[in-house]
Amino acid sequence: MLIVQKYGGTSVADPERIRNAARRVARTKRQGHDVVVVVSAMAGETNKLVDLVGKISEGKNLREYDVVVSTGEQVTIGLLALALESLGLCAVSFLGFQVPIITDKSYSKARITRIKTHALKKALVKGIIPVVAGFQGIEDEGDVTTLGRGGSDTTAVALAAALKADRCEIYSDVEGIYTTDPSICPEARLLDKISYEEMLEMASLGAKVLQVRSVELAMRWRVPLVALSSFSDAPGTLITEEEKDSMKRLKGTADLESASVSGVTYDKSESKITVVRVPDKPGIAAKLFTALSDAAINVDMIVQNVSTEGFTDLTFTVARTDLKRALEHVRRVAKEIGAEDVRSDENIAKVSIVGAGMRSHAGVASLMFRTLAKEGINIMMISTSEIKISCVIETKYTELAVRVLHEVFGLGKKKK
Known about the structure:
By secondary structure, the protein is of the alpha/beta class. The chain is built from 14 helices and 20 strands.
């Protein structure tokens, strides 16, 4: 069996944790499996490198930004290879260009275009454990690129897909995927299994165990993922295809809440922009959102009010880190189209419920809205799909909303 193991920053935060990761890799190897290891930089190291860039420049030269922030992983791959060698195993470190992991030219948020696996396969045949730097790659002309924050998860899944690995194990400081954040809700329950679709929604809506792009890749290439802790022997959470008979099973369940919803997530990293009194004409929204797209600013939720006297209000959310840039573009376009005003609000949070079972159950949305209303929590925006419902609320109500929704949908630990 070929297994790709990825160890996050907290799992390689210091020499003892690196030795601990090495012991886990060694155990897997001695069980008869081939192993490819992917590692992040030590915890906090990438932040230090980003801060250094900020102290020298405004960060507009993203090519040089990538040259700097990609260096953290070089340290950890060398140290982990040495730790494995001290355990009597043969390991060789690989930087992104040595694999090579080839990306497009989108510095700081590059996407992998292809991976040449010959060097890794050659090492595996010789019984060598390849230790690969996560987060980094190389574009066609030879420049170093990075995959964006959390990109080591993407590296691991991409390697697993390219190598046709039997599974990809993601090690962090938590034991798997919980029904919600245990620090907010102590009754949160560890899930033994979750579908790709549910995990993708949870990751995109604020759950931080897995990076969104890594889940997208896993779902596309059907790579079985396991989220595990590097500090315990808990079995973790398997992320895989939804069971074919799950809908039949759910339809026969009397308990609406426990059958439908798998988890509650929250995200405090967004901000809200409202363009007031926008002319309600064809092409206006396209002009506004094209300007944001051209600036590489992602828009999440969008709400447009009912038109009155030929005008409407348009509200949408963007990442808080993009707010300043987004406002510059929005104000420019608002002036061009004759909108009355542009307003922004950073005091928001997005709270969501996720579950594949929601497809086959009516009443989930109304229960969510009633529960929030009962607690006096006003809903500013709503977004839905087949397997999730998201509400934008004031930040101060985030923890309360998570706890009451977790309780009303029966997601807590089963009482003995």
